[in-house]
Amino acid sequence: MADDHSLCSRDLIEAAADSCAFAKQHCASDAAGLFGSYVPLYYCQLGASPAAFAPLCALLLLLTICCLGSTADLFFIPQLTLLSELLVLPPDVAGITLLAFGNGAPDVFTAVAVANRADFPLLLSDLLGGSVFITTVVLGAVAWTASLLPSAARRPRSWSVEPFTFWRDLCAFSLALLAILSAAARGSIGLRSSLLFLLLYLGYIACVVGLPRLGWAREAMLPAEAEAGGLLRAAYAALWVLEYPLTLLRYLSIPGADCGWDGARRRLTLASLPFAALLLHVPPFHAALVLAGFAATIAWLDLLAKEAVAIVESIGKISGISTSILGLTVIAVGNSVGDFVADTTAARRADARMAASAAFGSPLLMLMLGTALPCLLFTALNGRPIDTPISAHCRVAAAFLLCALASHAVAFPIPAFGGAYSVPRAYSFYLFSLYAAFLTISVLLEAGALPKGWVCSLGGGSGCLT
């Protein structure tokens, strides 16, 4: 007899005499979030009305993705910063471990939430889609922004990247990507492969720490404030209003790590009895409270990531759109907006060198940890490897990511492109065009205009979702 997961499909639900009852019976645990499954909500409370479901899901997805980012920015990164100070970690070690994990927390926790549902195509599409977006759109925006600066601010060392840093990150990124794709092509990723990915990450850290004179002490890419225009400021204000109830709950449940206990913070903290001791001053056991807040922040990130994945899976179930294309676009871009804002802001402040370096380092760490940790947790909790079919969309994303990395390997060192490991403004148009081509092919694949079977035959491997 087929299980409920195979019965929860749009065709079977709409073919049933009572779609609402069928959805309640077979979809209660599918695409379930904090408030249950969104599939019965669509067929019962909303009367299978796309006009009502689409704006509701769009608003909820926007809210959860924004809350994921703001939870990492406002709570997780300050906690990790304080922990790095308490552990007396060197800046480069803290930057590529704790702070990098904080910057990539939305993607990593989304990947963990997806792995718990054994949806590897969605996991991989989120990571690959985010990597393609950062290495094309974000890096292109950095190059474009740097080219618009006054010549006095556009110092060569401010824009060009360090050659050793460039090749180290590019080679490590390519090695990690090929290792993940090779392991997934075998059909499953087990404990040994997951540990190998972690060893690759540790090897990268050892390379950064062990070669300080050749490398570069990575600046902590903390989310920078956007120097936004009026329209963008209005959008931020609207999002702040939407997030406010959750923001209040987060401040009530997570003690602050920045020691910025002003009057408003203390009055807010008074409502949370476990942390009421902070009403008068920052106590000597503040570090212990930060550790408690760290656990609370992990719980918030996990909750929000699971909700975002549930919404995306519900959209896929109801609309028939594959979760791979949704992961490549909606989740990947949403989780990478913070990188876009931080890197372009750094470029506007005449520090395009740091921004360009972060555009390589951020997706590298995201790809390594975002694959290793979810697969390791899945195998440890379930006692079996996670099945790893590589969807046609993921194969396209991997091809474009390799194309982007190969383009950088050619463009940055060539003297005709500016030399000194820099690129001109024209290269930004090429990167934007590359991402536009990636989106176009992905949409054509989803629409059936391009045969997914043909794409799968090109990539090889033991499994491919069409």
From TrEMBL:
Extent of the signal sequence: none
Transmembrane segments: 52-76, 96-115, 127-146, 166-183, 195-214, 234-252, 273-301, 321-342, 354-381, 396-417, 429-450
Compartment(s) of residence: Membrane
GO annotation terms (biological process): intracellular calcium ion homeostasis
A GO term from the CC aspect: membrane
Membrane topology qualifier: Multi-pass membrane protein
Keywords: Membrane, Transmembrane, Transmembrane helix, Transport
GO molecular function per UniProt: monoatomic cation transmembrane transporter activity
Pfam family, one: Na_Ca_ex
Main subcellular location: membrane
Residues covered by the Sodium/calcium exchanger membrane region domain: 59-208, 291-443
Top-rank taxon: Eukaryota
Protein name as it appears in the record: Sodium/calcium exchanger membrane region domain-containing protein
